[in-house]
Amino acid sequence: MLIIIQYPITDLRRFIEYEKSYLKFPQWPFPNDSEFVRGMGPVRYRRAGGVNNWVGESKICFAKQSIKIDNSTFKSINGIKLKLKFRRFYFDGIASGKFEIAFQIESNVKYELRILLQQIFNINVQLKIPTQNTEHCNLINIPRYLAKQYIFATSYLNKIENNINNYIHWDNPIIFIVSHEYKDLKIQNNYNKQILTLNYPYFVTISHSLIDIKNKQIHLWHLKRSDYSYKSSEIARNIRIIILKLNSIRSTFNIILNSINQEIIIVKSLSLQSNILQKYLLDIIKKIDQVEDNIKMDDVLMIVKQIEEKLTAGLKFDILNKLETIINIRPQILKKIEDYFNKIEKYNLLSKNSKEIKMSEIEITNVGNGNVFKIDDESISIIDSFNKVNDTELLKLLIFINSELENIKNSFKPDDYINLKKDVKLLIEENKTDNPRKDRNIFYLDNIKKIITKTGEIGVPILEIVDKVISFFK
């Protein structure tokens, strides 16, 4: 059994004029092999590799120097042997980071989950703060010390100011347990929980619950495997990495919104910080929202999307509703995000190639005071669905692209804009014919895409629509 504790971090310095205080190395999210995090450890490739989608994370910091375990409280818990599996740190290069510590447990006895986790969080640790004293605490109280360690590990020491704590935030931990049904510790979880079972070919059961430890409410995920195959192992690992990644970026997203609302982040219109903030929030929203047309969705991401929708219903919508409130308060800062949601609302029915997990009827039964979602199907398969978009809808979309290009006319070189309008005109004329030619459509669209790409960030929303149109012809 593997128990992973994640401590999410948010660094707001790149969104304010305080940004000169942070070190430019490591160059996250893909540092050089020779780089390291001061006081934590070297950057290395993950031994089992990253994840082949937007998650990535092929390189992480092996943070063995960050936390030292006090052996007197660690060797075993009431006869259950513990092994320190890893200490890792990862940062996305802008604002969202996470520290993860994992324990391997070897036992086949029954144990009450709450007691086990309380005793793990009581483990005493030492944190070496670069150029400072060593701090002593237990794992439940470690976040504020990790924040201090992070500040000294990532900052120019002569530029650390007293108010820097306003811009570095640690969130409550999250727990992720991975176990095997037949060979691992039998834990008794009496908390309200929701369970989702993925049968052949995954053989995975995953549950989510909220537990209270030392007056902190903590999200607990438990992924249980019932198969020994490589496929089952790979799926379980990728689900775990993605869920932990989503947790850290959600935490950052929430902290950024709070900081805007509280005017901790005050961004000047058209400033570099404003552009970074808008682009970053738009990127996070796409990942949280998990709209297939806006990020590349592979099979595992689709599984995680279904898991979250079933087991943490409402979480995504709560945070997106919070965003809407902040947009109303700071519309000049978040215009790109507002534009994104407007386009999603207009075109979410035009998706051609959305993927979904095919499930049978869901039977809901009581487990203690919680719910169990049981999938009564021999298998859960990933299928492609094709929704034909009629010619009238497509033509309207092309005309909309034409009007949007008018709005960013000044972003093009004169010759590029002339060629662009020519291609758009030919494209519209082609699709007014009785039999539009696929090869001509793709030719014009590729030309249009190449020219819009030259405008950089301002052309991204239109490029997304162009990609949608291209998908109609493939």
Write the layout of secondary structure elements.
Elements: E1 2-11, E2 36-37, E3 41-45, E4 59-62, E5 67-69, E6 76-77, E7 80-91, E8 96-106, E9 110-112, H1 113-121, E10 124-128, E11 134-138, H2 143-154, E12 168-170, E13 174-180, E14 186-188, E15 193-198, E16 204-213, E17 216-225, H3 230-261, H4 272-289, H5 299-311, H6 315-329, H7 335-347, E18 355-358, E19 362-367, E20 370-375, E21 381-384, H8 391-407, H9 414-430, H10 438-453, H11 460-472
Parallel strand pairs: 9-14, 13-17
Antiparallel strand pairs: 1-8, 1-12, 1-13, 2-3, 3-4, 4-7, 5-10, 6-7, 7-8, 10-11, 15-16, 16-17, 18-21, 19-20
Walkthrough of the structure:
By secondary structure, this protein is of the alpha+beta class. It has two domains: 2-322, no CATH class; 391-472. It contains eleven helices and 21 strands. It has helices at 113-121, 143-154, 230-261, 272-289, 299-311, 315-329, 335-347, 391-407, 414-430, 438-453, 460-472, and strands at 2-11, 36-37, 41-45, 59-62, 67-69, 76-77, 80-91, 96-106, 110-112, 124-128, 134-138, 168-170, 174-180, 186-188, 193-198, 204-213, 216-225, 355-358, 362-367, 370-375, 381-384. Strands 1, 2, 3, 4, 6, 7, 8, 12, 13, 15, 16 and 17 form a twelve-stranded mixed sheet that branches. Strands 5-10-11 form a three-stranded antiparallel sheet, covered by helices on one side. Mean pLDDT is 75; it is low at 346-390.
